[in-house]
Amino acid sequence: MGKVIIETEDKGELRLKTSLTLKQIEKIIKELEKKEKAKKLVESHLEQ
């Protein structure tokens, strides 16, 4: 399965562009937020 990149801030727009359910979209957004937080933690740790 290939990767698809959709850049949007609008959850409604994301739902229109994909066949994902709102629950699936929320889960994806939470996972992305976790990864972003982890990345920032690592970067701040490396700067010290």
Can you give a write-up of this model?
It contains two helices and no strands. With 48 residues, the chain is an all-alpha fold. It has one domain. The termini are far apart. The mean pLDDT is 80.
Nutshell version of this structure?
Residues 15-45 form a coiled coil. It is built from two helices and no strands.
Helix content bin: 55-70%
Count of DSSP helices? 2
Cα(first) to Cα(last) distance is 39 Å
Overall average residue pLDDT:
80
Query: Which regions contain 5 or more consecutive residues with pLDDT less than 50?
Result: none
- Secondary-structure element pattern, one letter each: HH
Radius of gyration: 14 Å
Number of E strands = 0
Q: Report the major sheet.
A: none
Beta-strand portion reads under 5%
Principal-axes geometry comes out as elongated
Count of individual domains: 1
Key words describing this protein structure:
about 50 residues; about 0% strand; 2 helices; mainly alpha
What is the strand and helix layout of this fold?
Blueprint: H1 11-17, H2 22-47
Coiled coil: 15-45
Keywords: Coiled coil
